[in-house]
Specification:
Length: 191
Amino acid sequence: MGVITILIYVLISSCVGVFLIGLSLDLVNLNLIVSYIDRYVLGDISYKIMTGMLGAILLLLCVRYLQSLFSRSRRERAITFESPEGTVDITLFAIEDMIRRDLEEKKEISHIRPKIISKKKGLEVIIQSDLASQVNILEFTREIQVRIKEKLENILGEDKEIKVRMKIRKMMFMGNKRKAEEEPEIPFRNY
């Protein structure tokens, strides 16, 4: 959902909320508002057209929002293959789990959280992790990206476009842990 759509919904919700609170506290005179709308807004044809266009735009934004909401919920959480023997469904969770287990072997990264997004053209793999040792980040991430892409192409076939994106959230180097372990223990701390 776009920023403009969110902004419009927040503004409309705020205005309706303030209006309803004003009505309940008798701060808003409804007869005055109706007479103003009747005299100025609906009295001139140009204002009628602008009001109608504003209403149509708001309705189209609502329809667009609902459409994007339903398309997200319908988004497939599995990849389906057709074969002469039948269909095969591979859930995205299974692929994410395979990637997580494959990358847990590497000691350079930790807290691995893969996420796969199925798109019309192919798959987008987003791997979030923490860097646990000092390495050349560009070479290391490129190596992981190539490795994951090749593995998925072998499993799923090369007809799907696969994009692998790495997100390094933290850099936790082993030197910091050693310093923490070398700190002297406080006597009688456990008593």
